[in-house]
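Predict structure. Chain length: 433.
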Amino acid sequence: MKVNFIEELRWRGMIHDVSPGTEEQLHKEMTTAYVGIDPTADSLHIGHLVSIMMLKHFQLAGHKPIALVGGATGMIGDPSGKSQERNLLDESTLRHNQECLKNQLSRFLDFDSGKPNQAEMVNNYDWMKEISFLNFIRDVGKHITVNYMMSKDSVKKRLSSDSGTGMSFTEFTYQLVQGYDFLHLFRHKNCRIQMGGSDQWGNITTGTELIRRKLGHEAEAFAITCPLITKADGGKFGKTETGNVWLDPDKTSAYAFYQFWLNCSDEDAEKYIRIFTLLDQTTIDALITAHRNEPHLRTLQRTLATEVTQMVHSAEALRMAEGASQILFGKATTDMLRELDEQTFLDIFDGVPRFGISKSLLDEEVDLVELLAQHTQVFPSKGEARRSLKENAVSVNKQKVSEGDQINKDMLLNNKYLLIQKGKKNYFLILAE
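Prediction complete.
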């Protein structure tokens, strides 16, 4: 049975605005739609996930998705948000970022099957770099009035008396450049729809208007926007104390990624599980009911974290993240610690007190009590260290230790760390360099 794309997004809470005639177009034939992505970094972050999921559902509904990398527009800066004007990226950096983004998108979209609706990636730098300023204002600028451009909310906000920054001409023309992208894809890829966040409505409709004015009333183009994702507590979605939550495991480990979803509030989890997973409505409704009946089990958060981590990373990365999540609270072993990559290990024990020692100290075996109370300050005195050891309350790398035990460099995790546990909840890291 063919999926109704708009209805699918609607029950998931992913529709903000749809221009008239869009559903009719989707029922009529396989349709092409695009989403623009900023290539200023070599990784996507979870702020991109909503529009990626829109493309995913679009392809699952039998339509053709295009991911447009904004190599040209990314150099300007979109005034719809709070973005400042950006530095010009050189082309090699742009191409590197583009390839990285395509690799990540390939986890969500089919680029290679050869099916009529296989996804494409394009870069607007490819068609914008050859256009002269004079040609652009003649061929594009004359079709859109200043009055029309000034009526957009994104422009009004920046020009209001409340805005202390004003708006440069560069940013003002952003909607024309984005509109031209839509025109180009309409002409060359038969792309009929642009999708994006609700803050993009003004830019997208400038594109539909430009297409109509350039190509005539029979040239129909459409817009679909999704709500901007917010958190129940008013905080910004996708931001943590350390910054963005990236899809690249080198920037945000799979463990930290998993933890982000696991730590969502109940209210946010009910919203996010609809948006960020492919679970069907019946399954999600059952999960929400189960969670409301027994919220302490955190069924929603666990399912959400599992589904999104596996989709963005892999089943193996999910297994590692779940195992790592048990290390602080479960019965972890030394072998489990040794399986962790360094970034995941550091993420788990972020904020744990650290002490540094010279690695040469471990060339020969060093007495445990001396290590804990003389070379570091895990214990304030040797007497206190001995008392805790007698009470069987000390572990090294999750293994119980006793007075008289010796420590050597073969015990180091990732060739540089010793994890000391005092009692049930007190952890310390010894860094040997």
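Summary: The two ends are 61 Å apart (CA to CA).
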